[in-house]
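Module 6 notes. Inverse folding takes a fixed backbone as the condition and produces residue identities as the prediction. Think of it as a translation problem where the source language is geometry and the target language is the twenty amino acids. Below is one complete input and output pair. Work through it position by position during the lab.
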């Protein structure tokens, strides 16, 4: 008989959901220095653009994967986003962080692809180990952590694309509300409201399972 999933959705986890899905980053975090590499890449230095790609490829792929829930499509969109960034480098305003610009390109490509779909596939999400504590634990505690991760992944899969996007950017990629606003093209206050609603939806998705284990 399979052991019941208890710890993944207990009352404490629901009350501490923001902590369970990632540590927050300060709003005044310093931007990474893109300007030198951008200027060199514009002059035709291939190594400079390669450096830019290395600095953004992981968050670009991560965002695409969260929105599309498909490894293959996420990889394809990530490549297309980086290609478009290269082709439009002359249009990039280097007063804006380079990673936010490329993430905005990625987001638009993902939304275009989702609009073209006749139905949304539900392929397995990438394991979300980034959003759960990674401290050394006993074997029993390790099993609890796995149950928590599975519960969180299952709940995330049921959310809308918009909800997954704002949660992934804020908690997984550690973006500030100001940065997310730039990526999504809206006001920081709107992002804060979306975060609140998305967290509440996630709590409600996990609450029925918590009731079953009492």
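Target side of the pair, the amino acids:
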């Amino acid at each position: 008989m399979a052991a019941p999933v208890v710890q993944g959705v207990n009352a404490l986890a629901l009350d501490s959901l923001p902590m369970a899905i990632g540590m927050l980053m300060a709003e005044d975090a310093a931007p990474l220095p893109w300007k030198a590499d951008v200027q060199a890449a514009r002059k035709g230095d291939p190594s400079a653009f390669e450096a830019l790609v290395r600095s953004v490829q992981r968050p670009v792929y991560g965002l695409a994967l969260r929105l599309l829930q498909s490894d293959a499509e996420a990889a394809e969109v990530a490549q297309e986003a980086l290609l478009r960034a290269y082709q439009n480098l002359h249009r990039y305003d280097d007063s804006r962080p380079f990673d936010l610009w490329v993430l905005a390109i990625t987001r638009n490509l993902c939304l275009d692809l989702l609009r073209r779909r006749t139905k949304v596939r539900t392929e397995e999400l990438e394991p979300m180990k980034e959003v759960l504590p990674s401290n050394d634990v006993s074997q029993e505690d390790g099993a609890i952590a796995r149950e928590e991760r599975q519960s969180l992944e299952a709940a995330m899969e049921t959310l809308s694309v918009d909800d997954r996007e704002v949660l992934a950017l804020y908690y997984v990629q550690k973006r500030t509300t100001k940065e997310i606003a730039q990526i999504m093209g809206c006001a920081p206050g709107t992002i804060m409201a979306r975060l609140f609603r998305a967290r509440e939806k996630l709590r409600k998705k996990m609450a029925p399972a918590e009731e079953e284990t009492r």
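Reference fact for the lab report: The mean pLDDT is 73.
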